[in-house]
Amino acid sequence: MPFFIEVILPLSLPKPFTYAINEAEYGFIKKGMRVAVPFGRNKIYTGMVTDLHQNPPQLYQAKEIHQILDDFPIVTETQLKHWGWIASYYMCNIGDVYKSAMPSGFLLESETLITSKKDFDVSDIQLSDDEYLVYEALQKQSALKVQEVSAILNKKATLPVINKLIAKNAISLQEEINEKYKPKTIRYIRMPQELMQQDKLSGLMELLSRSQKQRDSVMYYFQLQARDKKPISKKQFTEESGVSSAVIKSLVDKGVFEEYILEEDRIQFEKDDNSGFELSDKQQEAFESVKQSFDTYQVTLLHGITSSGKTEIYIKLIEEFIKNGKQVLYLLPEIALTTQLVVRLTAYFGNQVAVFHSKYSNNERIETWQQVLEDSEKARVIIGARSALFLPFNDLGLIVIDEEHEQTFKQQDPAPRYHARDAAIVLAGMYDAKVLLGSATPGIETYYNATGGKYGYVQLTERYGKVLPPEIVLVDIKDKYKRKRMTGHFSDTLNEAIAEALSEGRQVILFQNRRGYSPWVECMTCGHVPQCPQCDVSLTYYKFKNQLRCHYCGYNIANPTHCHQCHSTDLSTKGFGTEQIEMELKGLFPAKNVWRMDQDTTRGKFGYEKIIDAFKNREIDILVGTQMLAKGLHFDNVSLVGILNADNMLYQPDFRAFERAYQMMVQVAGRAGRKDVRGKVLIQTYNPLHNIIQQVTNNDYPAMYKEQVYERHNFKYPPFYRLIRLTLKQRDYEKLKNGALWLYNVLSENLNLPVLGPEEPAISRIRNEYIRTIMIKLPQGNSIGGTKRAIVKILDSFDAIPQYKSIRVSVNVDPY
Ligand code: ADP
Ligand code: ZN
Ligand code: ZN
């Protein structure tokens, strides 16, 4: 009797393949183990076993497997079920889900390149004979393929050897990111404890009586100490007090001050005994309501204004779940946000916190994977961006989804194009776990579910410490321009408010939702605007680099000195981005430190953290940035937030544009005035009477919701209709146009549903590929499964038409 297994391959294939095994293997293999299997010509892949059976495949002769790679399952049956749900709901191939769910270190294939690590020292670490052979080979040649390793070792079981070498840090895989963050050390000063006693102080002042400067310096130290109640960095001290380093040095020599050094991330991973806290009355009430709500609902929305202390409620809740032996998943929209949260959670929970996201090395990810699988004490709480959803939980009790409205929870490309919030809710259902969604500005769909009785709903309307919500002031820039009250892009009102905040020793955040110096350049003689030759967009001007760049494909040229159309030299920049604002600020406040935070300044693994650290340490006075600034960051010393131009957020061709503009503005505004000061927010706009601007000003979420949900209902959008967007791409314009029309016609004839398009999107060509989209709208409650099957069938027949075969179609369910 033959024996078979079903195996998912890490390729974009819709179904598992059947492989033959022998009886002994049949007794050993379990679902969730990996096997190395041949596929195609001479290629070996790491496949995942999803089933065992005795039915030979009908259409092909089952091949034999090469190797069994695991001793026990590394993926649970619940995970396999969840993958299946994702593939079917988001209409993608199971192979795509498998590939993106597993850390790539688990998916070695015969083509994966192995390279040696430069800083590995063989004299430090014991290697087995096999490991040494591989190491030795890598000293002679820069890279090896898995197959070659197999030849060197003369056996099939190469993966255990490779994995051990990875664990020993001797080799790395080609796809690994090798950047290293050098922890930043910061120099602080403090006064020795024994000097701080009352009876010593007068003696101290006497000792310093001959130097006015030294005395002032000590007085200033006391003031700062009283004001900030936190470690004083040397840099902050010299900058704010104007005391020179020479004076500090002589005080250190006298033993009045001492210097000490802290490593930023060293502090972060230590449990802090002072991290305990009590919930305020309002928080306690909300905490109890959430627990009560969990009795009735699987999912609950915690709608708490910015700075209301939602994180503290999550922490207390997590504590209860892990006390009961449960695992907790804490999802964040953005990897960049993890650092701050990890600091807060590790301070409280110590080593029970693990972090998992795609910027961690393979090594680190595999380690966390194993900890979660073993239900280890080291991984009770997992913090991560959306990929953490795919960890092998076995006793998941709670999923917290922070900033649940963020669109980055939705994966855009490649497939699976899943929404981590929605996929998490389904996952929680499989474990009978609870879900807490948190936001100050919930997504329309979420609020609809929460007020419609599908989710529980808990509100928190007071900032922690009863700090007042920021005062929001609108600045009508049309009027300001008319009265000539603008300097560059700064109104006199904004300018004065910045000066005032800075004079009080506060920091300022300025928001502009575009990067570069200006989004386009225009010839003032003939009106020509330089375009990207490969994409349908204008080129963005970068002044510092004196370049024009395409934001979609990276194409760039030196800034032209004359128009390429008419040779006129009268070229003008139009619109403005963060680089221009940064430059203007340097002119307006030359003595201040101005930094910029956008995609251009935060490249690299820790680019973002470096800026955040510097801002936290008050090395930056004014931070200019894009929407990156809007994401749940906490800075205690920011008293002013300025939005330079609210209008370009409002006019985007997207049914979510108004919702997003509202969320963005309220979130950026929320960065102002945390802890002890009331913040101020200045919004510059041409449309101070626009409903969204008014709703932001009044912090009136319900009004925003009511208006948007009315529109959504009228125009057949979520939450009333589900959307499925098909995107077609092809380099040949005519072929694409005809193909899109064919597909549109067949869909609308067969589906008996609203089908829109085929539409040319706002950017209708990227990297020389033309783009068309078709949108299908499904009324809520319709059998979505049947419709999806019908769509897949139509797509299959589309694919079978020879002249359209080369058109790439991607499917996006619930596009964001
Ligand atoms: P949110 O996430 O709702 O915007 P946070 O949870 O970050 O708000 O809280 C805002 C600030 O208030 C943080 O600096 C936090 O440390 C502080 N805070 C909130 N609740 C408490 C509490 N119960 N005890 C001490 N500090 C708190
Ligand atoms: Zn011209
Ligand atoms: Zn381009």
UniProtKB/TrEMBL annotation:
<feature type="binding site">
    <location>
        <position position="532"/>
    </location>
    <ligand>
        <name>Zn(2+) 2</name>
    </ligand>
</feature>
<comment type="subunit">
    <text>Component of the replication restart primosome.</text>
</comment>
<feature type="domain" description="Helicase C-terminal">
    <location>
        <begin position="536"/>
        <end position="713"/>
    </location>
</feature>
<dbReference type="InterPro" id="IPR005259">
    <property type="entry name" value="PriA"/>
</dbReference>
<dbReference type="InterPro" id="IPR041236">
    <property type="entry name" value="PriA_C"/>
</dbReference>
<feature type="binding site">
    <location>
        <position position="535"/>
    </location>
    <ligand>
        <name>Zn(2+) 2</name>
    </ligand>
</feature>
<comment type="similarity">
    <text>Belongs to the helicase family. PriA subfamily.</text>
</comment>
<keyword id="KW-0479">Metal-binding</keyword>
<dbReference type="Pfam" id="PF18319">
    <property type="entry name" value="Zn_ribbon_PriA"/>
</dbReference>
<feature type="binding site">
    <location>
        <position position="566"/>
    </location>
    <ligand>
        <name>Zn(2+) 1</name>
    </ligand>
</feature>
<keyword id="KW-0238">DNA-binding</keyword>
<dbReference type="InterPro" id="IPR041222">
    <property type="entry name" value="PriA_3primeBD"/>
</dbReference>
<feature type="binding site">
    <location>
        <position position="553"/>
    </location>
    <ligand>
        <name>Zn(2+) 2</name>
    </ligand>
</feature>
<protein>
    <recommendedName>
        <fullName>Replication restart protein PriA</fullName>
        <ecNumber>5.6.2.4</ecNumber>
    </recommendedName>
</protein>
<feature type="domain" description="Helicase ATP-binding">
    <location>
        <begin position="291"/>
        <end position="460"/>
    </location>
</feature>
<dbReference type="InterPro" id="IPR042115">
    <property type="entry name" value="PriA_3primeBD_sf"/>
</dbReference>
<keyword id="KW-0347">Helicase</keyword>
<comment type="function">
    <text>Initiates the restart of stalled replication forks, which reloads the replicative helicase on sites other than the origin of replication. Recognizes and binds to abandoned replication forks and remodels them to uncover a helicase loading site. Promotes assembly of the primosome at these replication forks.</text>
</comment>
<dbReference type="Pfam" id="PF17764">
    <property type="entry name" value="PriA_3primeBD"/>
</dbReference>
<dbReference type="Pfam" id="PF18074">
    <property type="entry name" value="PriA_C"/>
</dbReference>
<dbReference type="Pfam" id="PF00271">
    <property type="entry name" value="Helicase_C"/>
</dbReference>
<dbReference type="InterPro" id="IPR040498">
    <property type="entry name" value="PriA_CRR"/>
</dbReference>
<keyword id="KW-0067">ATP-binding</keyword>
<keyword id="KW-0639">Primosome</keyword>
<keyword id="KW-0862">Zinc</keyword>
<keyword id="KW-0547">Nucleotide-binding</keyword>
<keyword id="KW-0378">Hydrolase</keyword>
<feature type="binding site">
    <location>
        <position position="523"/>
    </location>
    <ligand>
        <name>Zn(2+) 1</name>
    </ligand>
</feature>
<keyword id="KW-0235">DNA replication</keyword>
<feature type="binding site">
    <location>
        <position position="550"/>
    </location>
    <ligand>
        <name>Zn(2+) 2</name>
    </ligand>
</feature>
<feature type="binding site">
    <location>
        <position position="526"/>
    </location>
    <ligand>
        <name>Zn(2+) 1</name>
    </ligand>
</feature>
<dbReference type="InterPro" id="IPR001650">
    <property type="entry name" value="Helicase_C-like"/>
</dbReference>
<dbReference type="InterPro" id="IPR011545">
    <property type="entry name" value="DEAD/DEAH_box_helicase_dom"/>
</dbReference>
<dbReference type="InterPro" id="IPR027417">
    <property type="entry name" value="P-loop_NTPase"/>
</dbReference>
<dbReference type="InterPro" id="IPR014001">
    <property type="entry name" value="Helicase_ATP-bd"/>
</dbReference>
<dbReference type="Pfam" id="PF00270">
    <property type="entry name" value="DEAD"/>
</dbReference>
<keyword id="KW-0413">Isomerase</keyword>
<feature type="binding site">
    <location>
        <position position="563"/>
    </location>
    <ligand>
        <name>Zn(2+) 1</name>
    </ligand>
</feature>
